[in-house]
Amino acid sequence: MTEIRHEPVAPTRTQWLASGAAIDAHRHDDHQIVYAGRGVLAVTTGTGSWIAPATRAIWVPAGTVHAHQAHGELELHLVGLPAGDNPPGLDRPTVLAVGPLLRELILAYTRAPQDDSPERGRLRAVLLDQLRASPQQPLHLPAPTAPQLKTVCGILRTNPADDRTLAALGREAGASDRTLSRLFKADLGMTFPQWRTQLRLYHALVLLAEDTPVTTVAQLCGWSSASAFIDVFRRTFGHTPGTHLSRPPGG
Question: What is the pTM of this model?
């Protein structure tokens, strides 16, 4: 059994990770904000995965065992907060929207000298205020526990473009579509179409971070056309995949 690394204090720093690099499972006694200034970041726990491009950050509560995965060249910004400071009031990992001001605050706070100066204290106070106001984003891909769901979800993870109906997938899992529909809601908290869309968006972000053309991403992730993919992506992230590709907001 792999030992889980325990870091009492969650670090505040900036670091670069090569595409495909990972930080193994660990936990902190502090809360942590994890933000990718460039590239795409995935955070995985025992209950699922959260993924965030440069317009999103991931809130990781104190004590949560989690691992990081870099997609594309990753500029990783980590902000540690004492367990008593929980500005978003969240007790589980959550993706938060990052507007231009919050982005600049995270960049400045993780690059500034780690001191107790009044200037840094003011910077931190504004950062906490912005976190309190940051909207939550539904970018969570929950992990199934039911055996039949593990089979179905595993098939789709291997090939997100698989467009078979739940009934057809259920024949491989040995369960009816009615049973699987109930399990999706009970085990994962979402419907089958919602989970499949989340999976496809997850893979789309990974492929875009690797500079895969938008049309190819649409095909590999199962959208009927590039325009259909662009529409779903824009409604989810607020911008098109083409503008997402190369530069973060304000970059």
Answer: 0.84
Instruction: Please write the tens of the pLDDT for every residue from 178-191.
Output: 999 999 999 999 99
> Tell me: the pLDDT tens digits for 41-89?
899 998 899 988 888 899 999 999 999 999 988 899 999 999 888 988 8
CA gap 110, 15 in Å, rounded: 10
Long-range contacts of the stretch 232-235 (C-beta < 8 A, 24+): 232/197, 232/201, 233/201, 233/204
Q: State the Cα–Cα distance between residues 99 and 89, nearest whole angstrom.
A: 19
Instruction: Set out the domains of the chain in order of their start, with CATH numbers.
Output: 5-140 (2.60.120.810), 144-244 (1.10.10.60)
Q: Is residue 152 a contact partner of residue 178, using CB atoms and an 8 Å limit?
A: no
